[in-house]
Design brief:
With about 300 residues, the protein is of the alpha/beta class. It has two domains: about 5-215, Alpha-Beta Complex (Spore Coat Polysaccharide Biosynthesis Protein SpsA, Chain A), CATH 3.90.550.10; about 220-290, no CATH class. About 35% of the residues lie in helices and about 20% in strands. The chain contains eleven helices and 13 strands. The strands form three sheets. Strands 1, 2, 3, 4, 5, 6, 7, 10 and 11 form a nine-stranded mixed beta sheet that branches. It has a two-stranded antiparallel sheet with strand order 8-9. The longest helix is centred in the C-terminal third of the chain and has 15 residues, at about 220-235. The protein is globular and about 55 Å long. About 45% of the residues are buried. The model is unreliable at about 285-309 (pLDDT under 50).
Length: about 300
Amino acid sequence: MPRFPSLPRVSIVVPVGDVLSDFETSLVSVLEHLPGDAEVIVTHDGSYDDPFDLAEEVRFASIGSSDWGDLIRVIGSEARGRFVHLIGGGVRATDGWTAAGIEPFDDPEVGMIASVLRSERGEIVSVGWRDTDARLGEPVLAGSDRFDRRLAARAMAPSLFASFWRRETLRGLSGRYRGRDVGEAEYALGKLARLDGWRCEVAVDCETRLDGDLLSTDRPAFRRGQTRRAIHQRLHGGGWADAWLAAGRGVLAAAIGRGGIGEALGQAAAIRIAADIKARVKPNAIESLESERIVPIGHHGRTPMRRAA
C-alpha cells in the first residue's frame, strides 16, 4: 500500500516584509516552537533566495509582487492546512501557541482569531482591533497589563501579523482587495470577512510576543486615518459630512492620548482617495472574481466555489 504524507492541520505563513530582520525573528521563533501538525510557508515577492538553506523545513512561495491581494490568493491555493496562521513583522511564537490559537474554531461561525500579543514587558500590544469614535481600527486592550475578557470580546478582526484564519475564509477574500500597505490590507480584509458573516474571537490562551510596544499598523498617521475612513465608507457608505464629523471626534480623542490629530484630519480627507479605494476594495465577490472566472455558489462567502465553464 502506498503511504501518503499526512496533511497538516495548520499552515503557518511567514511573509518576507520590508524589514528582513523582523521576518527572520518571526521565522526563527516559529521553527523553534514548531508543532508536529503544522507546515511553514514563507511568502515573498521573488527576491528572497533562502540564505539559510531551509528548503527541507520550509515551503517557499513566490507571489511575484508585494501585493496583499496576491498573497491572499497564493495562500488560498498553496496552504494545505485547514487553518492558516499569519505571523510576522517581528512577532514571535511561543510554546503551544498554535494549539491554543485554533481552539475558537470549534465554533463554526468563527472565521478569524486574534492572539494575545504582548510586548517583552508583558503589556498587551493588541488582541485585534475595533472601530470606535476615537479611531478606526483601534487596537483592543493596547497598553493594558491585564487581560479583560469583556473588553477583548469587542475585537472585530485580528492583526494580520498575529492571526488565525479558516482557509475557506481567506479563499472567500481572494480577488477582493489589492494593495501593498499591510495596515490598509488588515483593515480591508477584516471588514470584508465580517461582511461575509464571519466572526472574530480572541484566543485567550494563545500568546505571541513583540519586541516593541506598538505594531507599525497601529502607529497614528494622516494616511492611516485617510485610508481607513475611505475603506469604511466604501463598504458602509457615508460622505463628506460623516468624514468631517469623525475627524472632529478623532481630534477630541487625540487630546486625551487616543490616536493622533494627523490621523483624525486624515479621515476628513478620505474623499480624496475614494476612487482609488473603490478600485482596490471589492465588497462584491462576484464582481471581484469575474476576471478569474470563479463563480461563488450560495452566500456569505462560505460555500465552495466552482470554476465557470
